[in-house]
Amino acid sequence: MTQVNVRSAAPPALHEPAISRFLFADPRLAPLWTLLRLYVGYEWLLAGWEKLTNPAGVWVGAKAGTAVSGFLQGALHKASGDHPDVSGWYATFLERVALPNAATFSYLVAYGEILVGLALILGLFTGLAAFFGGLMNASYLLAGTVSVNPLLFILATWLVLGWRVAGWWGLDRWVLPRFGVLLGIQRAGEPGPNSR
């Protein structure tokens, strides 16, 4: 009987262009990423704090869900007409899922904004925090609310792309290696770990 020696071949590696590595993974740009992260984090923390400390208790408290219900009703009114601001599929979600559970969504929004803000300010799980912040921005945009959401969505997208260095001047530098994420410094133009 003949033995066949099967070698496990490493999957092909996709190499990152030098400019991409410089913009999104070079710690020399950490000051820029920190400023972006702090700005977005501050905006989220402030928005969530205002909801949490609202004296009428329409977000968190005795009347939780009141503000969300009003917001959702306004979004549903924008779902009709010749040029609706809210897509039909999203209006269906708002009407059948979000509106009946307005109190739950109220708490999720208030505490979600605070948690995203704190995580970004501390530089803790920056990529995940930016992703969930962007998800909230997208939800507001889909509901027909513009305000600061387009800007924050763009910045959140950039923070997700730059997650490796966006938290370099933050807790990510020490926390992520505990989760198996290697944050070794690699200078622009140097070969990566998969180079041969």
From TrEMBL:
<keyword id="KW-1133">Transmembrane helix</keyword>
<keyword id="KW-0472">Membrane</keyword>
<feature type="transmembrane region" description="Helical">
    <location>
        <begin position="138"/>
        <end position="161"/>
    </location>
</feature>
<dbReference type="InterPro" id="IPR032808">
    <property type="entry name" value="DoxX"/>
</dbReference>
<keyword id="KW-0812">Transmembrane</keyword>
<protein>
    <submittedName>
        <fullName>DoxX family membrane protein</fullName>
    </submittedName>
</protein>
<dbReference type="Pfam" id="PF07681">
    <property type="entry name" value="DoxX"/>
</dbReference>
<feature type="transmembrane region" description="Helical">
    <location>
        <begin position="108"/>
        <end position="132"/>
    </location>
</feature>
